[in-house]
Design brief:
This protein has 12 helices and 9 strands. The chain has 282 residues and is α/β, with parallel strands linked by helices. It has one domain: Vaccinia Virus protein VP39 (Rossmann fold), CATH 3.40.50.
């Protein structure tokens, strides 16, 4: 997730489901970001995601970076466009870090940073958003399909009728395969929903427990439709693991090329562009 938040030696995926508990994602990401682990794994934006986000932002537009973390997308969106933005995250360490990094944009009135309940976003938004960015699996960290649908509906209601949502989701065909096997007993007995997994990251002697919901393209289409969106396209967010795609320029360029060639089902993450069901293409 892009900021709910490596050490190069960290294993890519770690399977260890011990009990059907759901970690406190805000607290887990406070730890993840404060340790420096998250920024080490994901120091830059995914070039493909950033390019598409910029293409969706009209001149003088506004954006919502939902799950903004420490600003991996917020800062370049502000730097490379004339847009104003709202960065939202439940992780207070992330918001504090972003506030420091973006102090000039905040002072200029181009950025507002919100933590805590999602309902705090709307009162500070000057007008409907032209773009809502939910990058790198942020939606998948929300437990419960109804809760995820509620978030999507709330985002839809904050968009301009011709606005867009750009959504990155973890691909169930590629991600956390061992964790999916480990989660099957909990899914069978109803403690988890299909697609749910637990995993962890480690930093030093500490273990950070995390929850994820993995998606297929068909499920993503179904949920977006139920939340009132019309899907424009589904493609790869990346083909290589995200941490590899964003840490080195040459690898990022290679991943960008590969992502333009392979079908979505082979992707590490799904990248989905959608609009409110009544909106017009532009």
């Amino acid at each position: 997730m892009d900021g709910l938040c490596s050490l190069p030696s960290l294993p890519a995926e770690t399977a260890d489901v011990e009990a059907a508990f759901r970690p406190d994602i805000g607290r887990s990401y406070d730890h993840y970001i404060a340790s420096g682990l998250y920024d080490s794994r994901y120091p830059k934006p995914n070039r493909r995601v950033l390019r598409q986000a910029l293409q969706m932002l009209p001149a003088g537009g506004t954006f919502l970076d939902f799950g903004a973390g420490t600003g991996r997308y917020t800062l370049p969106l502000l730097a490379l466009s004339g847009a104003n933005g709202v960065a939202y995250d439940i992780c207070r360490v992330a918001c504090s870090t972003l506030t420091s990094r973006a102090r000039d944009y905040v002072a200029a009135g181009r950025l507002k940073i919100v933590d805590g309940p999602m309902g705090a976003i709307r009162p500070i938004a000057d007008r409907p958003f032209d773009l809502a960015l939910l990058a790198f699996g942020v939606l998948g960290h929300i437990a419960g399909r109804e809760e995820r649908l509620s978030v999507l509906r709330a985002v839809r209601d904050m968009l301009h009728p011709n606005g867009r949502i750009l959504l990155g989701l973890p691909n169930a065909r590629r991600r956390f395969l061992a964790e999916q096997v480990a989660a099957r007993p909990l899914i069978r007995n109803g403690e988890l929903e299909p697609g749910d997994i637990f995993y962890h990251r480690t930093t030093g002697a500490d273990r950070i427990e995390l929850f994820y919901h993995l998606y297929t393209a068909a499920e993503a289409r179904r949920d977006l439709a139920e939340a009132g969106f019309r899907v424009d396209r589904i493609g790869p967010e990346s083909v290589l693991p995200e941490s590899e795609a964003v840490r080195r320029r040459a690898t990022g360029m290679l991943d960008d090329v590969l992502s333009g060639l392979v079908p979505a089902w082979l992707a590490y993450g799904l990248l989905i562009a959608a609009r409110p069901a009544g909106g017009e293409l532009r």
